[in-house]
């Protein structure tokens, strides 16, 4: 399975083509929209999210609510586009007046300056339009399709926010609690007291003209044993997931299970002892490794923790240099998110869902959904019998 997204942040729409989803799977725009809605929300987002109503249109690969096995095309309209017609210059006969409208002031922490140098753009809007995290809406649409597939195979993927700007939810929860409570509030944090501390941190950053980041957690449950492989570096599934997560705008660190804490723990507190029970087979007595051994899933829930940096665009000006005049200036802005960690946790969840679905479709016969289910059921049985 593969996908490609296209579209500028303030262009008419985002488009994504997904190839490789099996035939005969139920799929509707509503199934995707419920995930899109979750990404759009979240405490700390800026005015843009009040303009957009992220709903998808499926324009290929589905008939009468059933996938055909052919490429699925999904479109997400940018409602904000109507305010940017002249600047985007996509209207028939619409002339650009580059001198007035071009962006020559790169924002620190964005792709602006390096992107301009690399693609030889003197108008940095040509970089920022595509480097914007608007693209993550398309990635959630893909992940939503993957989640429908995974659910039909008994695999659930969900996420929550663990920390924002130092306010951390250290609660120990069962998988069931996390699954049930992962959408309880606008910061996606299970502990209500910590959730309020997170909102306060966001408000504080905003009123200081600053921004904050945080940490999210994605969990995947019901994953078959043995996805990924130790035999070649680029077949290790934890590596693929890490790449996918770090490719999300502003994600700077990723860990599995005890992750970053492993640096100060002894081996006896990190490796997960193996147990065996007639009828349910092998298991691990703990899950410090987050469901991976040797780049392969070991049957324990996959636990991915990831850190998002603070939003780079700040109301409090940061120094930069104009690429035309070479003059130093203080970058200021009109609108931006001050924290997008809750929204980004949804993006992360969908990135992991994509990697899992892709790996499964790679590993098992999968032209048609029933064929895939049978193939996975046989595999699960063989693992039990081992
Ligand atoms: C959901 C989401 C929303 C974001 N919103 C903004 C924003 O409003 N303003 C901003 O400057 N950066 C925002 N970002 C982060 C930038 O897109 C990102 O930092 C930038 O493209 C540079 O990429 P890098 O941080 O991965 O190097 C957002 C990221 C995500 C995931
Ligand atoms: C549009 C989205 O996020 C945008 C990501 C973003 C950035 O620089 O990454 C900047 C902001 O856009 P604008 O400059 O239009 O206000 C965010 O709103 C979205 O998440 O759908």
Automatic annotation (TrEMBL):
The top EC class is lyase
Q: Which domain of life is it from?
A: Bacteria
Q: How many cofactor units bind, and how?
A: Reduced FMN (FMNH(2)).
Names of required cofactors: FMNH2
What keywords is this UniProt entry annotated with? Amino-acid biosynthesis, Aromatic amino acid biosynthesis, FAD, Flavoprotein, FMN, Lyase, NADP
Region Disordered: start-end pairs? 95-114
The reply to whether NADP figures as a keyword in the UniProt entry is: yes
Q: What SUPFAM superfamilies has UniProt attached to this entry?
A: Chorismate synthase, AroC
Gene3D superfamilies, from UniProt? Chorismate synthase AroC (3.60.150.10)
Entry binding sites for FMN = 130-132, 249-250, 294, 309-313, 335
Per the UniProt record, which EC number(s) apply here? 4.2.3.5
Biological-process GO terms, alphabetical: amino acid biosynthetic process; aromatic amino acid family biosynthetic process; chorismate biosynthetic process
Which pathway is recorded for this entry?
Metabolic intermediate biosynthesis; chorismate biosynthesis; chorismate from D-erythrose 4-phosphate and phosphoenolpyruvate: step 7/7
Query: Which reaction does this chain catalyze?
Result: 5-O-(1-carboxyvinyl)-3-phosphoshikimate = chorismate + phosphate
Q: Where does NADP(+) bind?
A: 39, 45
Q: Name one GO molecular function term.
A: chorismate synthase activity
InterPro entries assigned:
Chorismate_synth (IPR000453), Chorismate_synth_AroC_sf (IPR035904), Chorismate_synthase_CS (IPR020541)
An example of a Gene Ontology cellular component annotation for this protein is: cytosol
Q: Name one Pfam family in it.
A: Chorismate_synt
| Protein task | This reaction introduces a second double bond into the aromatic ring system.
According to its UniProt record, which protein family does this protein belong to?
A: Belongs to the chorismate synthase family.
Q: How does it assemble?
A: Homotetramer.
Q: Which NCBIfam families match?
A: aroC, PRK05382.1
In its UniProt entry, what is this protein called?
A: Chorismate synthase
Q: Which organism is it from?
A: Macrococcus psychrotolerans
